[in-house]
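re: that chain from earlier
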Amino acid sequence: MLDLPLELIDETLSHLPWPNGLYHLLFVNRRLGAIAQRALYSDVQTLSGRKTVLLLLSLLHASAPRRELVRSLQLDLTGNSVLPSLERLISRVLKLLPCLRTLSVELVPYGGRHRSNSWILPQDAPFHLCSLSTCLVIDPVMAAFLNSQPRICHLSLRGLPPSASNPFVLPPSALPCLKTFRSVSLGPDTLSEVITARPVQSVTLSLTPGHGCRALEVLVRSSTPVRRLTILVVDASAPSELFPKLSGLLPELEALHIVALVKEYNLDSLIESAPLLEAFSGLRFLTFIASGQSSHELEDEATVAERWARACPTLSTIILPKGRVWFAGASGRWEHS
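^ sequence. v structure.
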C-alpha cells in the first residue's frame, strides 16, 4: 500500500470512519502513521463533550507541526453547559491553529444564552478563515472578529441578535469575499449589516411576523445578484404573497427554497400562485415544504408541478410538501423520483 501514490492513499483513508478508523493506523509504521496523522487532524469533526475537552487539551500541548495540520475544526457543545474555564480553553487553542480555514463553534454558555461569549473568537487569531458557522452571541465583539477575517466566503450566524445597547456594526471594508450567508431569526438591520455592498449570492433567512418584507428588501443591497435563496417562514406568508415580492426584488434568482412552519396549508393556493412565477427569468430549482397537514394526493402535486413549470419554463426541479422531487420526463409530463 505504501508504494501507491500519496493522493490515492489519502483518498482511501478518507473513507475510513473518523476518528477511530484513522487512529489505529498511527501505529502501523512511520510513513503510514504520518499520513494517518495528517488525515486525522486536518478535519476535526464533532465529538462528545468529554472527548472534545480531551481533544482541546491535546491540541493545547501538541507540537507546532501537529497543530499546523488542523484545517477544519467542529466544536459542538450544545448539549452541555459550558463553563467559563472551557470557553477560555477554546479561545487559547484557537490562537494556536495558524492553518485553520473552516471553523464551527456551537455552544450554550453556563448561565444561559444571553451571556456574551463571542470573545472566544480571538481578534488576534493567527488563522485566516474561509468558512465560519456559529451560534455565539452577535455583538460588537463578533463584528470586530469578522472584520479581522477578510477571507471568509461562507458565514452562518445563528446566535442571539444584538441588543440596542450593543449594536452589531460591520465596517464597510469587512468581509469583502462573502458569498454565502445563513442566518436564523435575525432582524433586517443585522441582515443589512452583513449583506449590504458585499458579493453575497446565496442567502438563508427567517421571515418572522413584522419583519418579513423588510428582510426581503435587504437582499437587493448585495453588490451582486442573489442567485440562491432559502426562506424559513414562521408567519402566515403564502406563496401568493412571496412570489411577486421575490420576483420583483430578485428576478435573476436561480434557486428558491421555502420551508413554511404552518399548522396547515392549502394546495389550491399553490396552484393559483403559478402565474406569479412568470416574472422569474432564470429560476431552475423551486422547493415548497410545509410542516402542516393537508389531505391532498400525490396526483394533486403533479398538477402543481405542471402548472408551475408552464408558468416558468426554466424550471428543471420542483420539490413539494410530500417531499417528492418532480422533474420533466421524456414524455413531457412531470414525473417524480
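The chain has a mean pLDDT of 87.
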